[in-house]
Amino acid sequence: ALPVVLDVDTGVDDACAILLAALHPALDLRAVTCVGGNAPVDAVVTNTLTVLDAAERQDVPVARGAELPLLEDPVDARHVHGQDGMGDLDWVKSTRDPDSRNAVELLRDVLLEAAATGDRGRKVTLIPLAPLTNIALLLRTYPEVAEGIREVVFMGGAAADGNATASAEFNVFHDPEAAAIVLDACADLGIAVTMYGLDVFYRPRVTRASIEPLLAAGKGDAADLAAQLIAFQCKRFGDSSATIGDAGAVCAVIEPAGVRRENLPVRVELAGTWSRGRTIVDRRDWSGDLTHDPHGRARSTIDVCLDVDAQRYASLWF
Ligand code: BDR
Ligand code: CA
């Protein structure tokens, strides 16, 4: 199975993603690290442990990471994800403690262990589904972890419209400096990056009707939790279906052929009156002004997901 690590801000759809990564036989979930985003980091830790309990994956280490973005005040998304960050479900919360290491230290240990094997098959796919604060701190503090990373597949950004603002996607908007650092560091360290952003994010959807039997069974297991997360979103948005959200990025790791990607220059807008946190994706086939910084240093071109086989990913998750 493919070794993976998730970095999350659980988060209703992060929970959907954790369930998939914890239980799909093609993946070997090595760790989950937590960051403030949808909810404050302590709530994220509790939610993440709760999801892994439901999946009976208490063996997966969970670590607490950054509480705040690098520069600005946090803007959480509890208006979308509920007061507890995970749908305010009638579900017993985990009382387990997280790993004693900080997220950055846990990530370092897991990635350096993978690097030490010298086996490409043991390298880890890093899947950030949250503001990139932990990952920026990791790559700046321990750049040697690059040897243990197979690729980064992150949920964030958009070539077209945003959601937190008209221009910017939530994860990048929450900590634009961190996102910029991660793209720069990956370019410098030779780490391949895929952006699973808003151009595809909302499209794989599960219907309320399809989860009805799972809700009725009420088994208190992973499938029950998954169904309740979908039901919460349907109710919250008054819709007959809900996106699997962040879980789509995990699908893109399990079945990469389900997305159409283009390798494009991407930069993060750090200023801007209305556009701070926007990912500027250059789809022109001339110019090249985004491929180098003012000092001539090569900057990131990354794989941007521009289309998705939505039915395929919805079925895979279900
Ligand atoms: C992203 O922001 C969060 O609200 C979701 O969990 C997802 O990671 C979507 O913009
Ligand atoms: Ca998330």
Question: Topology, please?
Answer:
Blueprint: E1 2-8, H1 12-23, E2 27-34, H2 41-54, E3 62-64, H3 78-81, H4 103-116, E4 124-128, H5 133-141, E5 149-155, H6 170-174, H7 176-189, E6 193-196, H8 198-201, E7 205-207, H9 208-217, H10 222-237, E8 241-243, H11 247-254, E9 259-268, E10 279-281, E11 301-308, H12 310-317
Parallel strand pairs: 1-2, 1-4, 2-3, 4-5, 5-6, 6-11
Antiparallel strand pairs: 7-8, 9-10, 9-11
Helix pairs in contact: 1-2, 1-10, 1-11, 4-5, 5-7, 9-10, 11-12
Salient structural properties:
single chain; two-stranded antiparallel sheet; binds beta-D-ribofuranose; alpha/beta; 318 residues; globular
